[in-house]
């Protein structure tokens, strides 16, 4: 692979193993990043995919995105497949990477069909056979059908095939062979889709790493949401306090404001918990102000919510339910 | 014993105003005055308003109440107060009334609870436990496949969509029910004569192109996908519906198509594009018929979520399915969180604090309380400010750093700015 840095310097050899390992991991992380990752996949395109005037658009699109491709005959004509360079996900020294020029097949396959072929397959009930041979040829692959010019064909020709029959056939192969489909009327759209699949496939290792993080925590986490608070010096700390409080289910902005008006800083609430006898009910009678005007009525925080907030700040059991 | 929220809706929160408006309206009607229509409109909106209004002026927030009518009501109210002050005070003391209702409800609950108690003793106890995880087995022909439509799908923004949806399903003779679903917009259950409900492993999330764009923009998209995946339903279908020419949907089409493809490749969803709402309904109706075909001759067994295995639809005649109740309870948004989960979510509210860092901090200090105890054990402010800075997290083992460490210290320990 030309993109991987050349011979390791002498300095690296003397680096301690821990630092070396970290350096390797950092390099591997760089290779799976969106943008960079495209360099490590290549698209295998069966020559028949380039039929019906689709060729120029597809090859141009892949060129634009800087994705490598090979036009080579596949087990079943009209299929598009992907391979990933093993060196993308390998966390080892660059010397080893240079040796590993191995490509590994990805478990996605596209199959291109023309509109008239779909209609024909519905008429002579051969769609199931097609899918069976595809799943046999590419075991463990998810197959997606790219259909080109179906609407146009149906408009122009009288086909005797009803809208419902088409829907039924395509939905059946979805349920039985787990095969999604997409319809395209222009070659530009179809070529763009192959580009989208390539990008998504290139990012698999990165996205998998992120997803693992969430499944460890067993809840959805993100800090790129617009409500996150930027703190500079002490500016922003009070908004952060408000955001902390509203993380609890059922704590609305008004509820948080009621607590903050009595305890403007977390420390004040924590100290109150330390000195009072009945921490569980500390906040229960705190009045929640609603908007001004004739609708204004008071509401208490209540014992239930008071107890939850108390538990959050006083429990030492991380798994206690709130 | 956990607390309970009681909702009190007064039958007639504003008896005086209602009475006077009625009087005025009938007078106006007798005289054939045009004001009768205005008064009728005011009366209609007053009837819909659930809370007591203290004065004529307060009525101004309601439709149909102009400044003149409010003033008239105020005058009338003042006159009335002079004559019947005591009676009036009693009727406006809304708080007292609520307390009375709450008391009644509690008494009633106590009464209801009593006869239920013997059940929890002796043999009956065992019988009850059995029904909780009762064996549910359905043989071919003993069950119906019913399409469930989420209430969200029908509520809110677009009543027209609901009517259209239900009319369409009716006309295609599809059995359906509208329910609140914990995740997704459409799913299918098998129902037997004893009303047991097993969930087929298919669930559809429907998004019109503009909703799809806005859910990506505000971050709901990722959270929804996560929740659907957590449901462990084998086949997740993302149904993306065109909105007109898809030109004014909030995000460029290339972004949306890439997001859809990513959903297929990274999250394992099946993606279905449709041209219109009607087109989506055709798809759902078709899918319903296919699922009936595929499942009606199978033997179904209710099994817990953790035992669910992928089904190969064509070669198994015996399938394990999740109970609908379990699915709906577990995937509901309102599930309860643990102390650590909330703590992680709180930490993430700080802009520069990544998921990796929040997980690393809570691996060391899993509750706010344990972090605070660690602060107390520090010998100096300087030590406390740096408490978190060397904790490392993520694949790259990056440290939290002194800046974030200090902010968190100040957040929990400052008494003034």
UniProtKB/TrEMBL annotation, chain A:
Outline the extent of the ERCC4 domain.
58-194
Annotated compartments: Nucleus
Keyword Nuclease, does the record have it? yes
Which keywords belong to this entry? DNA damage, DNA recombination, DNA repair, Endonuclease, Hydrolase, Magnesium, Meiosis, Metal-binding, Nuclease, Nucleus
Q: Which GO terms describe its molecular function?
A: crossover junction DNA endonuclease activity; DNA binding; metal ion binding
**One GO process term, biological-process aspect:** resolution of meiotic recombination intermediates
* Keyword Hydrolase appears in the UniProt entry: yes
- Name any one Pfam family assigned in the record: EME1-MUS81_C
One cellular component GO annotation, for this chain's record?
A: nucleus
Entry cofactors: Mg(2+)
Q: Which InterPro entries match?
A: EME1/EME2_C (IPR042530), ERCC4_domain (IPR006166), Mms4/EME1/EME2 (IPR033310), XPF_nuclease_EME1_plant/arthr (IPR047524)
Q: Which family does it belong to?
A: Belongs to the EME1/MMS4 family.
The protein depicted here goes by the name ERCC4 domain-containing protein
* Protein species of origin: Hermetia illucens (Black soldier fly)
From TrEMBL, chain B:
Q: Which GO terms describe its biological process?
A: DNA catabolic process; double-strand break repair via break-induced replication; mitotic intra-S DNA damage checkpoint signaling; replication fork processing; resolution of meiotic recombination intermediates
Q: Where is the ERCC4 domain?
A: 146-244
| GO function term, MF aspect, one | crossover junction DNA endonuclease activity
The UniProt annotation puts the region (Disordered) at 106-125
Sorted alphabetically, which Pfam families does this protein's record hold?
EME1-MUS81_C, ERCC4, HHH_8
Task: Cite a GO CC annotation.
Answer: Holliday junction resolvase complex
Annotated localization: Nucleus
Q: What does this protein do?
A: Interacts with EME1 to form a DNA structure-specific endonuclease with substrate preference for branched DNA structures with a 5'-end at the branch nick. Typical substrates include 3'-flap structures, D-loops, replication forks and nicked Holliday junctions. May be required in mitosis for the processing of stalled or collapsed replication fork intermediates. May be required in meiosis for the repair of meiosis-specific double strand breaks subsequent to single-end invasion (SEI).
Q: What is this protein called?
A: Crossover junction endonuclease MUS81
Source organism of the structure:
Hermetia illucens (Black soldier fly)
